[in-house]
């Protein structure tokens, strides 16, 4: 595998997963993260790819700051291998999917082949509403 300084930084950085439901929440979380100087992993709602599609969700995350170094995003594809494959083709770097072990193994292999990460388990996430309470949760999580 080629040398990838962003992936190396990604694995060495303490990422704080936060569930976001829409573009406004995603932008608000990235603004809070910037104020606190913490790295966040924006996580879509469970099975969001089936409701909105990976392309829409990727653009939503990009508009919120995905790719700015301290902002990454994970798409939850539910149990849809097709949605997971499409997400990988579109450029998602973090993908979660549930399903039969043989199917998830194949999706994990596909993810690895394109430099993405397959998440067998959905991470435990901080959740909104995006307000002072979430900012306090993120501050506390970063301190630990």
Poorly predicted ranges: 1-10
Listing every helix as H and every strand as E from the N terminus to the C terminus, the arrangement reads HEHEHHEHEHEH
State the separation between the terminal residues, measured CA to CA: 33 Å
The profile of the biggest β sheet is: 5 strands, parallel
CATH architecture: Alpha-Beta Barrel
Indicate the CATH topology: TIM Barrel
User: Going by CATH, what is the homologous superfamily?
Assistant: Aldolase class I
Rg on CA atoms, Å = 15 Å
Give the number of DSSP strands.
Answer: 5
Percentage of helical residues?
A: 40-55%
The outline comes out as globular
Query: What's the arrangement of strands in the largest beta sheet?
Result: 1-2-3-4-5
What's the rounded overall pLDDT mean? 87
Tally of individual domains:
1
CATH class: Alpha Beta
The percentage of residues in β strands lies in 15-25%
Report the total helices.
7
Judged by helices, strands and strand pairing, the structural class is: alpha/beta
Task: Outline the fold blueprint.
Layout: H1 5-12, E1 15-20, H2 23-36, E2 39-44, H3 48-52, H4 54-64, E3 71-76, H5 81-90, E4 94-96, H6 101-113, E5 117-119, H7 132-143
Parallel strand pairs: 1-2, 2-3, 3-4, 4-5
Helix pairs in contact: 2-4, 5-6
Task: Provide tags for this entry.
single chain; 144 residues; alpha/beta; TIM Barrel; 7 helices; 5 strands; 17% strand; globular; disordered N terminus
Describe it.
The structure is a single chain. The protein is an alpha/beta fold and 144 residues long. Helices cover 51% and strands 17% of the residues. The chain has a single domain (13-143), classed as Aldolase class I (TIM Barrel). It is globular, with a radius of gyration of 15 Å.
């Amino acid at each position: 595998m080629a040398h990838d300084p962003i992936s190396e930084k990604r694995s060495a950085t303490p990422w704080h997963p936060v569930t976001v439901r829409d573009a406004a929440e995603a932008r608000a979380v990235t603004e809070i993260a910037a104020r606190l100087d913490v790295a966040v992993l924006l996580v879509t709602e469970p099975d969001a790819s089936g409701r909105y599609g990976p392309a829409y969700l990727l653009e939503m995350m990009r508009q919120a700051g995905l790719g700015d170094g301290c902002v990454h995003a994970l798409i939850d594809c539910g149990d849809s291998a097709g949605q997971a494959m499409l997400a990988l083709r579109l450029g998602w770097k973090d993908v979660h999917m549930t399903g039969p072990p043989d199917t998830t193994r194949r999706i994990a292999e596909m993810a690895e082949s394109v430099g993405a990460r397959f998440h067998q388990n959905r991470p435990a996430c901080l959740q909104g509403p995006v307000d002072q309470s979430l900012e306090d949760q993120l501050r506390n999580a970063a301190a630990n």
